[in-house]
Specification:
Blueprint: H1 14-23, H2 37-50, H3 54-59, E1 62-66, H4 71-84, E2 89-92, E3 104-106, E4 109-110, H5 113-130, H6 140-154, E5 159-163, E6 181-184, H7 192-195, H8 199-206, E7 216-219, H9 223-235, E8 240-243, H10 263-280, H11 286-291, H12 298-306, E9 314-317, H13 319-322, E10 329-333, H14 339-367, H15 372-382, E11 385-391, H16 399-412, E12 419-422, H17 447-462, E13 483-484, E14 488-490, H18 494-507, E15 512-518, H19 521-531
Parallel strand pairs: 1-5, 1-6, 2-5, 6-7, 7-8, 10-15, 11-12, 11-15, 12-14
Antiparallel strand pairs: 2-3, 3-4, 9-10, 13-14
Helix pairs in contact: 1-5, 4-10, 4-12, 5-6, 8-9, 14-15, 14-16, 16-17
Keywords: ATP-binding, Ligase, Magnesium, Metal-binding, Nucleotide-binding, One-carbon metabolism
Family: Belongs to the folylpolyglutamate synthase family.
Catalytic activity: (6S)-5,6,7,8-tetrahydrofolyl-(gamma-L-Glu)(n) + L-glutamate + ATP = (6S)-5,6,7,8-tetrahydrofolyl-(gamma-L-Glu)(n+1) + ADP + phosphate + H(+)
Amino acid sequence: MAQEGDNGSPKSSPYEEALEALSSLITKRTRVGDVNMEERFLVLFEYLKMLELEEAISNLKIIHVAGTKGKGSTCTFTESILRNCGFRTGLFTSPHLIDIRERFRLDGVEICEEKFLAYFWWCYDRLKEKTDDKVPMPTFFHFLALLAFKIFSEEQVDVCIMEVGLGGKYDATNVVQKPIVCGITSLGYDHMEILGNTLGEIAGEKAGILKHRIPAFTVTQPDEAMDVLKEKASQLNVPLQVTSPLDAKLLNGLKLGLEGEHQYVNAGLAVALCSTWMNINGHLEESHLKQIQHTLPEQFINGLTTASLQGRAQIVRDEHVNNKISNELVFFLDGAHSPESMEACAKWFSLAIKDQNQTLFHQIADNSRFSNKVVKTHQSETQKSAQILLFNCMSVRDPQLLLPHLMKTCADHGVYFKKALFVPGLSMYHKIGSHALTPSDSNIDLSWQFTLQRVWENLMQGNKGKNNSAASEELAGMEMSVSNCEHSAVFSSLPLVINWLRDRVQQNQSTRFQVLVTGSIHLIGDVLKLVKK
């Protein structure tokens, strides 16, 4: 039970107080901002002096990773491999899904509340004391990157894996002057309002993490992007190598811990980063380095097959419903938000639901040993499933690029959505913690959700006759929505969507509801918060 303050209102916990302080660093302006990015980046070195972190950072043995798609997955594989090799690991990633502490992992586990608070206030108080009008407090992400360096240096990690937040050249993690090795994952169109409108411009920003003579690896890229990466590498005398996707045979019959065919690309890059890091630090001989391409050490296999990452190709059953009735409400969560990753997400979802429907069919058939009649009844029931899309994306992204990729790839695999649901984010842009929930009132601006709905309805009209997703009696109760069209609906809040889905499951006990949640990593986090309550 929460303690009461002097005025009778509930007293915030020490953790909530820290999150309130952190929320104060989130700038209200748009992400593009009105400040020169280079100037803001250079101020970071002032903060490092204030926190006396310059020497600490130079002593960290850092793996630095940038890219458009697969950064988080590559960093996760890398951390898991090196932890399984016996090294103490520090991993900094973004964004978080449920709790800010997810961004700071020690030996694969998010930092505990006690340590987080100690390091947070150490940094926050010093910066409050030393900053002024000329050098104001750092912005939200800048502070988190500084905090990560403080945590990992104090915790004396053997290896520090830093995922770039945005871009590369002017990202807060790029205060690192001498990483051990750098990685650049698949490049594509994203954050064009900041990074540029061509793949070449975007590649130039990502290549900003390359350092003089420091080895670097990338994956196969479009020619326009690869040409820029090679040119930047040449200017800095960087030995840049292109890694191949991991050969699945090297896993000795096991599967990668992260789902999806595209993960073999990320795994191949992670293996190169780990083996190079180990070689440079004297933990792997040159002869063994070459052998790794043909035979993976057991620790590497363990790392790759046990790696886990929330919100990327993640399947979560809604226990709220499933404990009470026989059918299922299952959420398929993937934070895809670029055209290419949307395609990969759609492919994963299509294969995952077929796999799940088949598995469930066999399980029920196996358990029904009473008579052929019983088995047949169960077969017809298990074949009935409804696919729903739950979608939101930031308004800087182009739904005309995202949604067609998603719809076409699913259709190519014979998957058609009964309904697409569009909803605003639950978390407020300028708040984190338990207070970061938007009220479910009529004042919420839903204009962006109506735009998404129009795009979807137009796509569905253009594809008439090619799909079998006609709305059915299973999807009644649409009075809970703000705008209901033939193929889609807009809801004013996420809790309303979850309640509507749970009601549908209750009303249709012969139908399994499979909900693909995608378009925004923030939406994924919001769904997890509600479903795991």
